[in-house]
Structure formats: C-alpha cells, structure tokens
Amino acid sequence: MKILVADDHPLFRDALELSVRQAWPDAEIGCIGSLLELPAAPASADGSPAMLFRYDLIVLDWRMPGAEGSNPIAVLRQAGVQGPVAVVTGAEDALTALEVLRCGAEAFLPKTTPRRILAQALRLVAEGGSFVPKCVALDLLHMTDLSLDIDEAEEADGPPLEGEGAPSSPLTDREEQVLSMLATGATNKEIGRHLGLQEVTVKLHTRRILRKLGARNRTDAVRRAQQAGLLSRSLDEASS
Questions:
Q1: Quick one: angle between helices 199-213 and 134-146, nearest 10?
Q2: β-strand pairing of 81-82 with 85-89
Q3: Residue 76 pLDDT > 50
Q4: Reduced to 3 DSSP states, what percent helix, strand and coil does the chain have, rounded to the nearest 5?
Q5: Domains and CATH numbers, the chain
Q6: CA-to-CA distance for 148 and 204, rounded, in angstroms?
Q7: Is the Cβ–Cβ distance between 82 and 55 less than 8 Å?
Q8: CB neighbours (10 Å) of residue 158?
Q9: Which residues fall within 8 angstroms of residue 93, CB to CB, at 6 or more apart?
Q10: Strand stretches in 152-213, DSSP E
C-alpha cells in the first residue's frame, strides 16, 4: 500500500498521517506540505509525463501551495502522480465540493469530519469507491436544480436592488477572485481557464456574488464592488 498525504498545515498533516498509519500500519506513506515538493517527471514526446508515480490513495488538501492558477489535482497529474484522490479541506460549502469533484476527486471531506468517519471514507476511496457527506450531497442536488436557470439569473433585467454598499455576507477568497475577473470583462470560459475551474462552477460563484452584493447583473455587481472597495486589492492579481 502506497499513500501520499499532502497538506500545508503541519499539525493537520501530522494528524492525517497518524490516521492513515492507524488504518494501514504497513503502508508506505509520503507526506508533503507543498505541491512544489513533488518530484519532477520528465516529459515524453507528446508532452505527457514519461514517468508515473502511482499511489493507492492520495489524501489532498484543496488550497495547496504550488497550485496557484490551477487546481491541485491537475498539478498532480501534470507531475505524473496517479491514484484515487480524497480531498480533505477546511471548506464545507457545496461550491467547493462541486469544484473538487469536477476536477476528478473521488471524495470530498471537510476537516471537521470525525476521525472514525474519515478513516472509513479513506478506505472506501482506496477500494475504488467515492464519498460525499450527506449534507453536502443535498446542497449539490439543490445547486443542480438552480443551475438550470443560472445564465438568466446572471443577466437579469430590471433596476438595481436595494442595499448599496457592503455585501450581505463576506465574499469567499474564490468569490473575490471571480469578481476581480468579472471586473476585467472576462467571460466564464476565460475565468475558468485562469482559475482552473469548470465553467459551471464559475457561473455558480457568479450567482452567489450577485446575491451577496444585491446586484442585478455582472455590470451592477462590479459597480457595487467598486463602491464598497472590494476590488482594489485583487484587480492586479486578476490581470497578471
């Protein structure tokens, strides 16, 4: 049994390693705190990795150093790292879960998952299964229903809504990134390519941004964000 544990928080990485060792006492376990620590696989003539590093299980944090501008699973694959991925992350929202699953993970596990459940879920993934907590799965089902009319919701007509100023609730880091790209006039496809997201995930982030800002459409959202001073710290990053 060969397992890779990747998390940039030393204490949690140690806790994950302990849980994995308890589940698989004889496993060969590698631990890294950054995707920059992955060995560089030489490329073949077609650009794909010439050497593959195969694991029976990869336990991966989602916001990892070395994955800026992409997603961690894509970075793993580009480095020739193969194996089923269980993402264990501090995020608990359905949007992050959707992003994680669409990028190829077999499991989405919030870091608040009890250790006994975590161990069972990791075993399931190692045996070829998948896992998402029930509450997250229900939110994903609800989001699927919402996505049927999401394009219309992004560009609804009518006067601006009431409530100029700060958003009704803070924007997440990912929402701030999407908002900064909206301010440049980027399309959903361009935003997705820049941030390593699926296009439908960009649409869902945009919907939440509009709701939080009380905006009717993208243009109104950018205007309100500028008035609230939300864009000044991230526009430079979006244009780089």
A1: 90
A2: unpaired
A3: yes
A4: 50, 15, 40
A5: 2-133 (3.40.50.2300), 163-239 (1.10.10.10)
A6: 11
A7: yes
A8: 8
A9: 139, 172
A10: none
Q: What is the pTM of this model?
A: 0.65
* Residue 108 token pair: 């989405």
Number of neighbouring beta carbons within 10 Å of residue 142: 11
CB neighbours of residue 204 within 10 Å: 21
pLDDT of residue 168: 66
Whether 40 and 66 have beta carbons less than 8 Å apart is answered as no
pLDDT digits (tens, 9 = 90+) for 115-124: 899 999 999 9
Per-residue DSSP letter, 160: P
Residue whose tokens read 């010439």: 50
DSSP 8-state assignment for residue 36: G
Distance from C-alpha of 60 to C-alpha of 74, rounded to nearest angstrom? 12
Token digits of residue 228 = 């609230």
Residues in the chain: 240
How far is Cα 135 from Cα 94, in angstroms, rounded to an integer? 9
| Tokens at 72, concatenated | 């961690």
What token pair was written down for 130? 């998948």
- Sole residue written with tokens 């100029």: 164
Cα three-residue angle 154-173-61, rounded to 5 degrees: 120
Sign of the torsion angle spanned by Cα atoms 44, 48, 52, 53: positive
* Mean pLDDT of the 24-48 span: 82
Helices (H), the chain: 10-23, 72-78, 94-102, 115-126, 134-146, 150-154, 173-182, 188-195, 199-213, 218-227, 235-239
The reported pLDDT for the residue numbered 193 is 87
Average confidence (pLDDT) over 148-159: 47
Looking at per-residue confidence, does 10 or 42 come out higher? 10
